[in-house]
Amino acid sequence: MTIAEETTKTNKHVAENPKSERVNRVKNYAGLLSIITFVLSVLILASAIWLLYMKDYDCEKLLRLPRLQIGIGIGLIFVSLISSIAVLLRSRFPVPGFFLVMVPLIVMLTMGLALVGANKLESRRLMATPNWFREKVRHNENWENIKSCIYSTGTCDDLVSRSLNLKAFDFSIKKLSSIEDGCCKPPSACQMEYVNATFWTKVEGAVDESQQRYSDCATWQNDQSILCYNCGSCRHGFVRVMESKWRNLGVLLIFMGLLLIIAHILLFVMVMWEHYN
């Protein structure tokens, strides 16, 4: 072998060595990212199981929300399985696996955005969105059923038993749930005198009940079967409770969806780079 041939062989080996190092480095990164993606898929599965076993809120069944909750839970199980399969088959079927997993992840992200009330993604027809809740309580027929359900749960009776020994000031600083605050007591703007949690005395001339913003003051009654169940504040309180639960679920879907989308995109790029090099 001549000196020129040895020199050429040495230069070729030196040129290939950095390339080989880059390939090995990408393989290591891809392996680490695969583990992270698989862990995220397991977390999605855990969230689905938690969702399936999570207790329904009071009166949710009237709106058929438990069915939606079960449907989302089952959907998350499929997302977790598809994501795990895409990770395991990333080397053999990178392109089909990538597009197969992107579709349910995008649906998952879109659903999450709708649940938190993202602009133009929520609808009065799409269940559990803020607009949908407001539309449901706006109809008196729906509200009559919800109102009866709230009364049957004994929420206001429970509030009375927990605040028997409280004075007016102590009760005013007591933390109440949205339903307790909206349905079991008159709005603070009514300026009524406190007797107990569900019994209040109207102060003559305190507010003008003919004005729209004080309409709940005229609606309030000390009758334990009426209280403020017909008030707008009670409807708003029920909506706030429902929105809080489903908004938190929406945030979870957005967070996990974004993480998995980013992870699968990076993993796809690394696998394709590895294939072509």
TrEMBL record:
GO terms for biological process: auxin-activated signaling pathway. The chain crosses the membrane at residues 29-53, 65-89, 95-118, 249-273. Its main location: membrane. InterPro entries: TET_plant, Tetraspanin/Peripherin. It comes from the Eukaryota. Keywords: Membrane, Transmembrane, Transmembrane helix. The keyword Transmembrane helix applies. It is a multi-pass membrane protein. Pfam families: Tetraspanin. One of its GO terms (cellular component) is membrane. It is found in: Membrane. Belongs to the tetraspanin (TM4SF) family. This is TETRASPANIN-8-RELATED. It comes from Salix purpurea (Purple osier willow).
